[in-house]
Write a structure and sequence with these properties.
Shape: rod-shaped
Oligomer: single chain
Number of helices: 6
Helix content: 55-70%
Length: about 160
């Protein structure tokens, strides 16, 4: 029997680090897009749920209205602040007060009802000699509901 000429074992060359395989390039491009998309989806879901819960709270406030109109206006003002903090970036809303706060609320509505209309009572109800009457409170609830609907359209 004749012996075959065999060579020694040859190891393959080491795999180079650069350039990476096409799969790594795709992952490098898709991963930031996926993170961005998931963040946008989370914010949208959070905003929608906040608006939905706020609508239920507004209806509960309207049906359980107490006799003190000033307390009702204060509760509506606090409700607006909480909804705004839940639906907008904190840095845009948290530091606002007085006229600047009312201007922020007016951004959603075309006719500026917070700075030039009935919504002004949110800022100065405690300083008025007479509290708002029932008709004004009903109109204020309608205004808040209108503002909330605009927040729902943004999401």
């Amino acid at each position: 029997m004749e012996q075959l000429p065999l060579r020694d074992i040859h190891l393959p060359d080491a795999v180079d680090f650069w350039p990476p395989a096409p799969g790594w390039w795709a992952l490098a491009l898709l991963l930031p897009a996926l993170v961005f998309g998931l963040r946008q989806l989370y914010q949208r879901i959070r905003r929608r749920s906040a608006v939905k819960i706020a609508g239920k709270l507004l209806e509960a406030m309207r049906s359980e209205r107490t006799g003190d109109a000033r307390q009702t206006v204060a509760a509506l003002s606090a409700w607006l602040r909480r909804v705004a903090l839940s639906t907008a970036p904190r840095r845009d809303v948290a530091s606002l007060s007085g006229h600047a706060w009312l201007q922020y609320l007016d951004r959603s509505l075309p006719d500026a009802p917070f700075t030039q209309g009935l919504g002004r009572c949110l800022a100065d109800a405690h300083y008025r000699p007479q509290p708002p009457n029932d008709a004004e409170l009903d109109a204020l609830f309608e205004l808040c509901e209108r503002w909330l609907k605009q927040q729902a359209k943004k999401s």
